[in-house]
Specification:
Blueprint: H1 3-7, H2 12-45, H3 55-103, E1 107-111, E2 117-121, H4 139-172, H5 186-203, H6 212-225, H7 229-238, H8 241-252, H9 262-283, H10 288-300, H11 315-322, H12 330-345, H13 376-386, H14 388-394, H15 413-421, H16 438-452, H17 477-490, H18 495-501, H19 506-515, H20 517-524, H21 549-559, H22 563-583, H23 589-620, H24 625-635, H25 639-643, E3 646-648, E4 651-655, E5 664-668, H26 676-683, H27 688-695, H28 697-700, H29 705-724, H30 728-736, H31 739-748
Antiparallel strand pairs: 1-2, 3-4, 4-5
Helix pairs in contact: 2-3, 3-4, 4-5, 5-6, 5-7, 6-9, 7-9, 10-12, 11-13, 12-13, 12-14, 13-16, 14-16, 16-17, 16-19, 19-22, 20-21, 20-23, 21-23, 22-23, 22-24, 22-26, 23-24, 23-29, 23-31, 29-31
C-alpha cells in the first residue's frame, strides 16, 4: 500500500459497503428462517408422490440449504470487510500520529510514486524564518521514524491484500450458489491461508530432509485446519499433486522402512489421516485452480513417481491410501475410480497382480493389520465407503434398466467386475491374518454406503439437529437402484458361492439387507409379482427397491446361509414386524388386516432365513452334527442384536458385536415413532442362559434343527400374543381367520427345501 493511499484514504465507500452487507445479512437471516421453518419443514411433513418425491423435494431441500449458505457467506464477507475497515482506519490514524511526531523533530515523509517513500527534513535550517528555531534530530531519529512508517505500511498492506485474497478464495469455493465457509474476521481467515502456505513449504522439501519437529508441525497444523476450506485449498494448490504423493511416500516408507525411527512411524500414521482429510476438503472447492489440481491427480494415477521410497509406487498406490479418510468431491472420486478400474482390468491376471506381489514391498497404510495398502482398490473402496453420494454414483444402475434387475445387462460394469471378475488378494501385515482379505471387506463398505446413503461407519443417532420424523432414512431411488443390483448378484445361482468366497462381505450384505427389509417384505407380499401390498408395506421413499418375489426369496436364502448376515437381517425383520404391530394397534378391522399381513409376511421372510441357516449348517458340518448344532446355537443369538437397538426418526440403529460403537445396522421401521412392542423388545434383559452360551459356544450353544425351528415359531407366537393380549376382538378375529395357522405355514413352508425354485440351495 502506497504512503499517500493510506495517509489520505477515504473509507466512506467501504463503510457504505459494510452497511449494505449488514442489511443483506439481516434479510438473508429472515429468508434462512423462512426456508427452514416454512419451506423445508412443510416439505418434510408433506406426503410427496411421483416425481415430486424425488425432483421437487430434493430441489426444496437444496434451496433451503442454499439460503443458509448465502447467509453464512454474507455474514463472513461482512465480518471480513468490517475487520479490514477497522484495521485500515487504525493504520491510517497511526500514520497520521507518526507523521505528527516526526514533525516535532523536523522530519516528514514523501511518497515517491513508485510504492516507496523517503524521509526528509520538514524545514531546512537555512530556509527557516528569521528568529525560528528548527527542532533538531539525529540519524537515529531518522531511522526510527523511517522504520515506524515502514512498519505501519507493511501492516496495512498485509491487511488489505490478505482481505482481497481470502475474499477471492471464499467466493471461488462455489461455482454456483454459495459457500458455507465461515470466519469470524479477516485475521482468522488470513491466518488459515498463511498457515497453509507455511506448512506447504515443508511439503516441498525432500522428505528425507524433514525433521521430526517439522513433521510434527505439519501434523498439528493439518489436524487444526483439515476441515477449513480456505486452508485446505490453499495448502493443496501450493503443493503440486506429484510432490504431495512423493512427500507422503517418503515419510511413510523411506527406502522400504530401513532404519525407521519409531517416532517417525507415529508421525507418518498421523500424516496419512490428517493429509487425507485435508485433501478431501480441498477437492470440495469449485475454483478453477482446484479443478486443475484434481485433473492432474487423476492423470498421475497410472504413472510411477520415479522415487526410491515405497518401491516407487504409482499415483494410485499413494493417493488411494490417503483418500481412506475425508469427505471428497463426488466427481473427483468417480473420475479417479473410472481410471483406476480401467487400469486394473487390463492387469487382472491370475498370479500376476500389479499390486500385491513379491517385488512390491511398499507399506503405505498404517490402519489395520490385514491391510498393508499395496492394493489401491482397497483404499479407493474405503473412500467410497465414507462418501455415500459418490459411491451411489459409482455403482449406479445402467440407463434403461427395468423395474427390477433381472439380467446381467442391467448391472453396473464396475459392480460386476469388482464382485465377480476381479482377483482380490489378501494383503496382511507381518502380524496379520492371510485368510482375511481387507479388499473384499472394503468392497462391502463401499456397497453399504452406496445402498444406505450413510458412510459405513457412521452413527445416524449422533446428529446435532433436532430429529424430523423420517429424516434419518437416507435411501433414494438411486440407492435402491444399487441395492437391486446387489440383490440380483448375490441372489443369483452364483450367489452362494460368491458369499462363501467373499465371507468378508457377510456383515455388509447383512446390513444392506436389513436396510431394505421393508422393501423385501413388500416384494414377498404379493402372489408372485402381482397384488403386492402397498397398504401394509408402504413406501418410505420414492422409487423404492423392487426385488421381485423370487428375487427377494433368493436373496434372503443366500443371506441366511451365513451366521452373521442371518443374524443381522433376522434382527431387522423382527424389529420391522414389531414396529408394524405398533403402527397398527388392534383397534379396528383395517388395522387387524395390516397386522396380519405384517406377521404373515414377516414369518415368510424369517422362514426363508432360518431354513437356509439350517440347511447350510447341515451341509457345512455334514460329518459333525455337534458342530452343526453349535452353529445353529450361535445363530439363535440374533436376539441380542435387537436388544441393543436405538430407535429414532423412523429407523433402528442396531450395534454389531465385535465392531466399533459407530458400526451400526441401520434398519427402517414401519412408523416414525414406536410403541410397546418394539420398546419391550429392545429394552428387555437378555436371558442369562444366552449370556452363558455366548461365553462357551462349544459346550452350551447347541440346538438341533428341530429346536431351532421351534424357537423360530415361538418368537412368532410371542409377537402374536403381544398384539392380541389386551384386545379380545383381535384374538377372536385371529381365531376366526386362522391367523396362527397361516403364520406357522408361512414360516415352516417357505425356503430352499420347498422345491428347486424357492431360494438357493446351500453352498
Amino acid at each position: 500500500m502506497d504512503l499517500d493511499s493510506l495517509r489520505f484514504a477515504n473509507f466512506s465507500d467501504l463503510s457504505t459497503a459494510i452497511t449494505d452487507w449488514e442489511q443483506m445479512v439481516t434479510k438473508l437471516k429472515v429468508l434462512q428462517g423462512d426456508a427452514k421453518d416454512n419451506l423445508k419443514a412443510k416439505s418434510d411433513k408433506a406426503d410427496w408422490a411421483g416425481d415430486n418425491a424425488t425432483v421437487t423435494r430434493s430441489f426444496v431441500d437444496k434451496t433451503a440449504g442454499e439460503f443458509a449458505d448465502a447467509h453464512t457467506q454474507a455474514e463472513t464477507v461482512r465480518r471480513i470487510l468490517a475487520d479490514t475497515l477497522g484495521e485500515l482506519t487504525s493504520y491510517r490514524d497511526q500514520m497520521k500520529a507518526a507523521i505528527h511526531r516526526g514533525a516535532q523533530k523536523n522530519l516528514t515523509v514523501r511518497d515517491t510514486g513508485d510504492g516507496g517513500f523517503t524521509v526528509t527534513m520538514n524545514i531546512h535550517p537555512d530556509r527557516a524564518a528569521k528568529g525560528t528555531t528548527v527542532p533538531e534530530h539525529t540519524q537515529g531519529d531518522v531511522d526510527t521514524f523511517r522504520d515506524e512508517i515502514q512498519h505501519i505500511l507493511r501492516n496495512a498492506t498485509e491487511s488489505d491484500t490478505s482481505a482481497a485474497k481470502v475474499l477471492t478464495l471464499l467466493v471461488d469455493q462455489a461455482e454456483h450458489g454459495f459457500s458455507d465457509a465461515s470466519y469470524k474476521d479477516r485475521d482468522s481467515a488470513a491466518k488459515a491461508v498463511a498457515e497453509a502456505e507455511r506448512v506447504a513449504k515443508i511439503l516441498k522439501k525432500d522428505p528425507h530432509d524433514v525433521t521430526l519437529t517439522e513433521l510434527n508441525t505439519v501434523n498439528s497444523t493439518l489436524a487444526t485446519y483439515k476441515s477449513d476450506p480456505l486452508f485446505a485449498e490453499r495448502f493443496a494448490t501450493q503443493v503440486e499433486p506429484k510432490k504431495i504423493l512423493e512427500f507422503y511416500a517418503g515419510v511413510a516408507d523411506p527406502y522400504q522402512s530401513m532404519g525407521r525411527d519409531p517416532k517417525f512411524y507415529e508421525q507418518a500414521k498421523q500424516l496419512q489421516k490428517n493429509l487425507g482429510i485435508t485433501l478431501g476438503t480441498a477437492t470440495l472447492s469449485d475454483s478453477d485452480t482446484m479443478q486443475g489440481w484434481e485433473a492432474k491427480m487423476v492423470k498421475l494415477g497410472p504413472d510411477r513417481l520415479g522415487i526410491d521410497d515405497a518401491n516407487d509406487p504409482t499415483g494410485f498406490g499413494v493417493m488411494s491410501n490417503l483418500m481412506r479418510f475425508g469427505d471428497y468431491d463426488d466427481q473427483f472420486l468417480n473420475q479417479y475410480g473410472d481410471k483406476l478400474i480401467t487400469y486394473d482390468k487390463e492387469r487382472n491376471v491370475e498370479d500376476n497382480s500389479p499390486w500385491v506381489n513379491n517385488w512390491n514391498q511398499g507399506d503405505l497404510n498404517f490402519y489395520g493389520k490385514h491391510d498393508r495398502g499395496r492394493d489401491p482398490m482397497t483404499g479407493f473402496m474405503e473412500a467410497l465407503g465414507h462418501n455415500p453420494d459418490a459411491s451411489t454414483q459409482f455403482f449406479a444402475q445402467p440407463e434403461g434398466a427395468g423395474k427390477s434387475v433381472d439380467k446381467d445387462g442391467e448391472v453396473n460394469e464396475h459392480l460386476k467386475y469388482l464382485t465377480q471378475d476381479r482377483i482380490w488378494l489378501a494383503d496382511p501385515t507381518h502380524d496379520g491374518d492371510s485368510k482375511v482379505n481387507a479388499g473384499k471387506d472394503s468392497l462391502g463398505h463401499a456397497l453399504e454406503s452406496a445402498t444406505t446413503g450413510y458412510a459405513y461407519d457412521s452413527d445416524p443417532m449422533s446428529g446435532k439437529d433436532p430429529l424430523i420424523p423420517g429424516s434419518l432414512d437416507h435411501r433414494t431411488a438411486a440407492t435402491a437402484g444399487v441395492m437391486e443390483q446387489v440383490a440380483y448378484l448375490y441372489g443369483s445361482e452364483k450367489g452362494p458361492e460368491m458369499l462363501h468366497k467373499q465371507s468378508e462381505l457377510a456383515d455388509s450384505l447383512g446390513k444392506m439387507g436389513a436396510a431394505y427389509i421393508d422393501d423385501i417384505d413388500y416384494s414377498l407380499s404379493g402372489i408372485g409379482d402381482h397384488s403386492k401390498d402397498d397398504g401394509s408395506f408402504p413406501a418410505k421413499y420414492e422409487g423404492r427397491a423392487n426385488f421381485g418375489n423370487e428375487g427377494a426369496i433368493s436373496f434372503l436364502s443366500v443371506l441366511g446361509q451365513n451366521e452373521t448376515s442371518h443374524g443381522v437381517v433376522t434382527a431387522a425383520q423382527h424389529l420391522y414386524t414389531l414396529s408394524a404391530l405398533d403402527a397398527h394397534p388392534a383397534t379396528s378391522e383395517a388395522n387387524f388386516d395390516y397386522a396380519r399381513d405384517a406377521m404373515v409376511t414377516g414369518a415368510e421372510a424369517r422362514g426363508i432365513l432360518d431354513n437356509s441357516r439350517v440347511e447350510q449348517a447341515e451341509k457345512t458340518y455334514k460329518d459333525d452334527s455337534e458342530e452343526a448344532n453349535k452353529s445353529l446355537g450361535r445363530s439363535g443369538d440374533w436376539v441380542k442384536l435387537g436388544a441393543g437397538a436405538v430407535v429414532a426418526g423412523g429407523i433402528a440403529a442396531i450395534p454389531l458385536p465385535g465392531t466399533t460403537a459407530a458400526a451400526l445396522v441401520i434398519a427402517p421401521l414401519a412408523a416414525d415413532t414406536v410403541g410397546e412392542a418394539v420398546n419391550t423388545f429392545i429394552g428387555h434383559e437378555v436371558d442369562k442362559s444366552i449370556d452363558d452360551a455366548e461365553q462357551d459356544h462349544a459346550e452350551k450353544a447347541q440346538v438341533t434343527s428341530q429346536e431351532f425351528y421351534s424357537k423360530g415359531v415361538d418368537d412368532l407366537g410371542a409377537s402374536y400374543d403381544t398384539y392380541t393380549k389386551d384386545h379380545p376382538a383381535a384374538a377372536e378375529t385371529g381365531d376366526d381367520q386362522n391367523w396362527k395357522e397361516e403364520i406357522k405355514a408361512s414360516y415352516l413352508g417357505t425356503g430352499s427345501h420347498q422345491n428347486d425354485y424357492r431360494g438357493r440351495a446351500p453352498y
